Fold each of these.
Amino acid sequence: MRALGLATVFCFGAILFYISFDFPGWGDENSPASRHVSPYYIEHTMDDTSVPNIVTAILADYRGYDTLFETAVIFSAGLACFFLLRIPERQAPPARFYRHLATGITFRIEKGGRLPEDTDEFERIDSVWVPYDVIIGMTCRLVVPFIQLFALYVIAHGHHSPGGGFQGGVIFGAAIILFAISNNLRRTLKRMSEKTSALLGSLGVLIYAGTGILCMVLGAGFLNYSALASLLGVDPVSARSHGILIVEIGVGIAVTAVMVWIYYNLSSAGRQDEGL
Amino acid sequence: MIWPLDIIILTIVIICGIAAISIKDLLGAAIMFGAYSFMMCLLWSVMGAVDVAFTEASVGAGVSTVFFVAAVFRTTRRTRD
């Protein structure tokens, strides 16, 4: 079986290697893409959309349908994780662990014992080994706002530099995941609940699709942002640039929420009680 | 494109790829995937595709490594095969 698998892999690898000789060289000016596809966008993007970063303009404007469905795919990934992993019923675990904050002593409370839920003196900890990590928690708490600020910069500055909704959204979600890793899952769920992340995920996709439908209502094609000119009070070329920004914000919200949502379900095996 | 740099990065990519599938420790495999993604990110930026490199760095090397580690945390760390 192993030999058969290796033979298949080498066979297909050889075919792929052989096919790769037909590819045009890197940066070949006679390749089909460089002859008539790329020059069009390089020459027309600035006049059409007033966006200096051609990649962003192609991603969100010329090929807006692709990006809309990419966002929908990411949202579906979050939904799939939810349906596969989430365990809705909340059975009480056999024993719970609490730490007395003033002394650092850990308590084990058996099933049926009185739980110190609503006091500030005790902190609930996970049943797997958890170190008493004041330094890690505080350092990550200090770093998180700067990461979030950078994420917002990446989303807002995608017109001029590399970046955009996907990257910025992932970085924003990573900041929240960093908070969850350095502190614990329950504290993160208090700040951004599962319901919030699910609603934000669908809101992001709704912003994208809604912008497209708004363009249709205003009398142009789906996702033709120049129709927004009358609504935004700018000329049609700037309207396409603003339309890209609106869409990127939608993508950013959706990706952030879905990344956090997937992390909640993965790290806690769907229980969303004790997690990484 | 700088040829020596390109060859070094491609070599590390292949080493990371083989290590990720042959290593017994699943956490090590997750970290190897992260290293693989980071090397691919370097490769994209050497080729001038900066947007793709940025996506690879944030999604491939960042969040997907965290997802792998979170999944390993909920299963056994060692593979049987």
Amino acid sequence: MSAPLMVFFVLAAMAILGAFSLIIQRHPIHSALSLIVVMIALAGLYLLMGAEFVAAVQIIVYGGAIMVLFVFVIMLLNAGVEERTNFSKLASFAGLPLTIALMGFLAAAVARSADRVQTYQTGTVAPTKALANLLFQDFVYPFELTSFLILIAILGAIVLAQREKI
Amino acid sequence: MVPTHYYLILSAILFGLGVVAFVFRRNIITIFMSIELMLNAVNLAFVAFSQAWNRLDGQVFVLFVIVVAAAEAAVGLGIIILIARNRQSLNVERVDLLKL
């Protein structure tokens, strides 16, 4: 087994265990820390694929900004252990079979396409300069639109979370 | 070297676990985190395809997905604060105003 394959399996096991932990933990703060483990493992996988800029953005924006926001809200609301309720009859009957069906569809789709995508990851370092050229030339209008999106999100968050009317 | 479909299988597993968390958890913050997990799984598939075909478009899409996730997190957490203030609870089954 080659070294990149071994690194892949270690990081993949880390990500899957973190995702399982996200489901199993009953306290939201433990779920948030599990999600941070998943994100760090995914950043390692991006590095393994040679997408260095995406790996850095993953750690800074996802692991840094977004998860800090989550942890901040969890602590602000003093979220405790989640209570167990069983109000929904439909969910208790149909939830598990439908989830298994969805995972079956996903597995079938991947298994069918696996022989068609027989390329191998080369692991060359993706040039961040080429990414910047693509982002600021071909995708410059979507890029500018995202700034409007963020502006509207800021306004929405302020309007939603304010306590009294200005 | 790592075959591309290994990454796709990992991506599908993570997406499935995100769906399971979304369906089975009742805390609204955990449900929101499972959405982030699903977005991460999709990002992994994007980068894997981007490397497989040696094109960088997939990585640009990943950057856009991250921007949208950040905006979504800001607005969504604002809504969560509002729900917690009005309902005194983070349980989604107690938010049933539109339920028959």
